[in-house]
Each structure stands twice: as structure tokens, then as C-alpha cells.
Amino acid sequence: MGAHAKKAMKKNLKRVSSNKLSQGADFLPLEGGSARKIGEQKPPENTATVLYVSRIPHGFYEKEMEGYFGQFGTIKRLRIARNKKTGKSRHFGYIEFESPEVAKIVADTMHNYLLFEHLLQVFVVPPEHVHSRLWRGFNYRHKPLDYVQIERKRHDKERTLEEHKKMVDRILKHDQKRRKRIEAAGVDYECPEIIGNIHPAPKKIKFDD
């Protein structure tokens, strides 16, 4: 290959490489030449409206949270995680605002905020991380059980004579265990006697039809 042919080949290679860089590169070529201008990248639009709130103190429930966080803006939905069996708060929940800007302000303002000796932890939840069943039953308001009323009803229920006898036997058995524990502890104490078989009949007796 002659010197003229080598010069022509080098010239063609430079032209081809400069064209490729100008068409697909996002940076300036090392050896000069035109390059594609990088367009201005706009920051991603904030559309997150859901907040995750943890370390919620005892007594700060749905009504209190609506009144407190409602000062920042309109709340669409609010939910506190509760125990399915007892209904007690699990001390974390979710709040959805109408405006993404309000949600961001609340997250920035209330994160590590001291409330009733608890540091609130508030984070913005991205829309792609919001579970589809998150707001299922969110408007349910738990009614605490009246255990006193439940126990009163159980205690005052009508019993048959057989059920009453079983209850008395259970009381006597418990009393015997209590006496043995007192004696094992070396305590000189005379326990009052409990009448077992001659225990008075219950006020409410359920007779079989």
C-alpha cells in the first residue's frame, strides 16, 4: 500500500469516527469534532402523597392524628395499624394527603419530632411502593372491648346444678394449691375454710326443659 493510499484511509477513518461521535455521544470527542448537545434534564416530578409514620405514642390515635396533621393540609385517608385480636395500636400508620407538596413538607417538618416522649419517624412512600391493599378498610374505627362487662356477663350467667358443682370444685382445688404454697414458704397462717359440698345454690339456676 502506497503512502497516498495510507493517507486516504486515515482520512476516511477520522471522518467516520467523528460522524459516529456526533450522532450517539453525550460527551465531547477527544480529538475535536461536533458532538450532540445534551438537553436540559428536568428533575422528576414529585407525585408521592403517602407518608409512613412510626413510633406513634399511646393515646395518639385516628382522631388525634387527623386533628394534628390536618393543620398542614387536607387528609384523604389515614390508617393506624392495629392488632387484629385485641385492636390495640401497633404504633405505626399511614397518612395520604391530597397534595404531594404538603406531604413533603410534613415529612421534612415532623421527622424526629418529639411527641409525648416519642421521636416520630416520618417518611415519604414512593407511589410504586404503596401496596394495593394498604387502604383496605381504612375507615374502620376500632371500638375497645368492655372486659368488665364481658366478665360480669360470664359471672352472672345462668348455670345448671352440674355446672355450679364444677365451679365450686375448681375453687376448692385452687384453694388447696394456695395452702400448699403457703406451707412451703414457711408462713404460719390459718386459711379460712371454704364450704364445698354445702356451698349455697346459685341465685340463677338453669333447669333443663
Automatic annotation (TrEMBL):
Superkingdom of source: Eukaryota
Q: Which UniProt keywords apply?
A: Nucleus, RNA-binding
Which CDD domains does the record match to this protein?
Answer: RRM_NIFK_like (cd12307)
Task: Provide any one GO MF term from the record.
Answer: RNA binding
Query: What Pfam families does the annotation carry?
Result: RRM_1 (PF00076)
Show where the RRM domain sits. Answer: 49-127
- One Gene Ontology CC term in the entry: nucleolus
Entry annotated with the keyword RNA-binding? yes
Which subcellular locations apply to this protein?
Nucleus, Nucleolus
Record protein name field: RRM domain-containing protein
- In which organism is this protein found? Sphenostylis stenocarpa
